[in-house]
Design a protein that fits this description.
Bound molecules: (3R)-3-hydroxy-3-methyl-5-(phosphonooxy)pentanoic acid
CATH architecture of the largest domain: 2-Layer Sandwich
Order of helices and strands: EEEEEEHEHHEEEHHHHEEHEE
Shape: globular
Distance between the termini: 19 Å
Low-confidence stretches: none
CATH topology of the largest domain: Ribosomal Protein S5, domain 2
Number of strands: 14
CATH class of the largest domain: Alpha Beta
Largest sheet: 8 strands, mixed
Structural class: alpha+beta
Length: 330
């Protein structure tokens, strides 16, 4: 007879304002630099993990379709990690749905592995505190370490498995400080170079990687202080320069990795135009062509209209989102 146990978790996507780019230890997902993000309310992943005592291959479904190949193996390796810690055997059935396009530089892996970490560990009977959960999520995807927390989160690079995890960052509590990200969905197709491959190539070949990594500590300090005092203009300025620096490291890799498209650049120009017109708006980009524009909530419509006029692509507005949570307990 087989006994089943299941859990369902929800985790939200986070967008880095000071980026994680490059692994010091690819096995343990230890990053070169610490990073800081905002968790978003508009995009999340819901994941159910069901363990049975039966042997066999794990089954993984994403948005209703079976996942195969490297994506499936990646999830299975993660499940193995949890199974071995919990002393559990037996196959798992994983069912995951995203409200954000997958693999398009919209940080879908941050919410995906945070939800998977919480659902899997709970279904296995492990009760992990947020720091331990963050360490575990990190082993699936580095950015997932930050999606365990709501609001702003700082992932301390650390130097080993134990010391590399995220924690909440205190933000100014003030109704005037209500930042949002206007996400310009320039292109939601699958990226051609995964962030994992792009990171590896950048670290191994880009002469600009080390200077960028060396500058990250100062960006992080400035960002933390700006979040604490609710200073959107400084947050935006630091986020913009940090993201451009990250993309510069990729452009200098051999061969170059370029996620920008002409429409990406048109949106960046539209943001500069908004600033010249006195609107506080700042951009950041990840491993894909899409642009996230940080602004005050009161300006979200103006920013979305500027994106529409520039490239006519859809936009979504996201404010600060909640921490990962269990919705069905084992
Ligand atoms: O965790 P990954 O492998 O999806 O890498 C995320 C990298 C960036 O999104 C580009 C930056 C970040 O800090 O999230």
């Amino acid at each position: 007879m087989s006994a089943e146990v299941q859990a369902t978790a929800i985790a939200h996507v986070n967008m880095a304002l000071v980026k994680y780019w490059g692994k010091r230890d690819p096995e343990l997902f230890l990053p070169w630099t610490s990073s800081l993000s905002m968790t978003l309310d508009a995009f999340w992943t819901t994941t159910t993990v069901r363990f049975s005592t039966e042997a066999g291959e794990d089954q993984v479904k994403l948005d209703g379709a079976p996942v195969a190949g490297e994506q499936q193996r990646r999830v299975s390796r993660f499940l193995d990690l949890v199974r071995s810690r919990a002393g559990r055997t037996g196959r798992a059935v994983v069912d995951s749905t995203n409200t954000v396009p997958t693999g398009a530089g919209l940080a879908s892996s941050s919410s995906a592995f945070a939800a998977l970490a919480l659902a899997t560990s709970s279904a296995c009977g492990l009760s992990l505190d947020p720091a331990a959960l963050s360490r575990l999520a990190r082993r699936g995807s580095g950015s997932a370490s930050r999606s365990i927390f709501g609001g702003f989160a700082l992932w301390r690079a650390g130097h080993d498995d134990e010391s590399s995890y995220a924690e909440p960052v205190p933000a100014k509590e003030d109704p005037q400080f209500d930042p949002v990200m206007v996400v310009a969905l320039v292109d939601t197709g699958h990226k051609t170079v995964t962030s994992r491959d792009a990171m590896r190539r950048t670290v191994e070949t880009s002469p600009l990687f080390r200077p960028w990594a060396d500058s990250a500590a100062a960006d992080l300090k400035e960002m933390q202080d700006a979040v604490a005092r609710g200073d959107l203009d400084t947050i935006g300025e630091v986020a913009e320069r940090n993201a451009l620096g990250m993309h510069a490291t990729m452009l200098a890799a051999r061969p170059a990795v370029r996620y920008f498209t002409p429409n990406t650049v048109a949106v960046l120009d539209a943001v500069l135009e908004l600033r010249r017109a006195g609107v506080s708006a700042y951009y950041t980009m990840d491993a894909g062509p899409n642009v996230k524009i940080l602004c005050h909530r009161a300006n979200a419509d103006v920013v979305a209209a500027a994106v529409d006029a520039a490239v006519g692509c859809p936009t979504a507005v996201a404010g600060a989102g909640p921490a990962a949570r269990l919705v069905v307990r084992p």
